[in-house]
Amino acid sequence: MPFSFPAFIFFIFSGIFGVILVYLLRVELILEEKTAWGIMLGSVFLTIFSFIFSLFFGFTKITILLVFFLSFLTSAIFCFFYRKRIISELKDDIGNFRERIFAGKLNLFFLIFIVAFLFFGSLWPKVFYLDNNQNIYTIGTAGVWGDWGAHNAYVSHFLSSDKISLEHPLFVGRKFSYTFMMDFLSALLMKIGADRISAMILPGFIFSILLIVILYYFAFRISKKESIAILAIILYLLGGGFGFNYFFQDIKNLQGFSEIINFLKNSRIEYTNIDKYNIHWTAFLNALLLPQRSMAMGFPLGILILSLVLIALDKKNNKFLLAAGIIASTLPTIHLHSLISICVVVFSLIIFQKEKNKKTVFTKLLSFFGPIAVLGTWQVLMLFFPSNYHPRILLFWMAKKENGLSFWLRNLGLYLILILPAFFLAPKNLKKIYLCFSTLFILANIIIFQPHDYDNIKIMTYWFLLNTILIANFLVKIWNKNFLAKILIFLIFPFLIFSSFLDLLHLYLHSGYQLFSKDDIKLAEFVKKKAPSNAIFLTSDQHNHPIPALTGRQILMGYRGWLWTYGIDYGSREKDVRTMFYGGKDTKNLLKQYRVDYVVIGPSEKSNYSANETFFAKNYLLFYQQDQTKIYQIKN
To answer: Nearest Cα to 30, choosing from 434, 321, 307, 432?
Structure first.
């Protein structure tokens, strides 16, 4: 695991700041849960405060230090005024923690924490790393290799200037309609001295550990059993459908274990994501946690918010609902799908409570949704409206012409088959909570919320978490019946996790994909030193192009495979880009119209846009040359 002292200091300070917030909130949590909540909340709020201050005072080290100082000062003031209460509660928590250790009540928690630490400590360093030749590689999944080109561009975008720009880094003239706060955090860490690798990896690693702790106590709070909580986490992280069936078809002609391992090592097939067989319920680790950085920050925060809501409803404490609403109002810039999911679930939880007094119900709804309306709505309007896309009706998500039942049976496997018996054996409270979360699955099977149909999985994953708790409860109950029941569970369990296990094994065996070459890094360093931070570049839309990804300089049009998922209509821009590269009579006028400062002519520009190098060499000054790549300066 890469180590960065600046990043270490940030998360330590965030933890202290956040834990103080948790103690001030006075929610009934045990010490380890307060610590996890504190680090999570502290990281989120310090990142957002730094972003807001940077908008007004510039994105500089001084601004970040100012935020840290003000946060420290505020914490110190609250600690001074509430010192007796905080010290008393802290002593009680530490005493309780010691008692539980000596009583052996924390053995299972320590086990899952150590396993999570070792697992993610071995996984995250493979996600994004420098090889021995100073090339940057990603882990062997197309999701990370594809998405992290954009994430690097967003990080570099914030770093390119002390002035925060909300113009889209990949489409000049368009607002930055993306949940970018996780990428801003990485930019913040780099601003205070962390290297790019550490700044990209460490937040994901830390939030993954926090996710396990928060998930554990979320599942425990609902199920009341440690064994169910641990099993639910395993099922959630490794949940998959019947895709493994195609693995056995793929290896039927292979001979010996070594050939099977070599097949997994070199194959690009992910058995939870096979478009050919209409399998799209992708593994959480491969497709959500690792590639989608917004998810790495937004999902643990989302589970934290839902935990606080469950506590609030159980204790009938509207102050906790208000606090949950305030925390949820940070989600528009972190993970919008989590905000949508949480709003639907919390509304259902409040409405379906046994509360006859309509005024009480309204007060609860207002306590949670009021802060979101005041603090969150303007963020959504600022970033995502107006939009070229509107939600549309589409039954059964990505089933296409396939029967909905057979589609979901193949995608979810036993997780679909076991719902009815698991629901029948579930306690009343679990049934109620599960039904509230099921509204997400129903909505996502009727409405497509974003241009990319697949993105509905980011909403359904919250339902799937409750599904795994429901099934974990069922499996534990059956296991405790008799010896034959244990054999049955032993036979069932592999079918629940084998597809995702194959994908995870592939990640460890695969050597990875090169994202940026040593020459890309060299080119980027030259551009950062010589080209103005506000320069506009004409490039190809190669997803890992070094200009947007490593320099943060504005480009006319980035990877089209991302743009349409953001609801950007790039048709006319694409036509103009091709015309400019062609080097015809309209080229100069279009370059002037788009205020282009530099044009890159490299292999991707030549192969994808038929770039006319002769035209640019004849008419413009050569700014940079490296092997097959040249950059021409359009303006003096």
So the answer is: 307
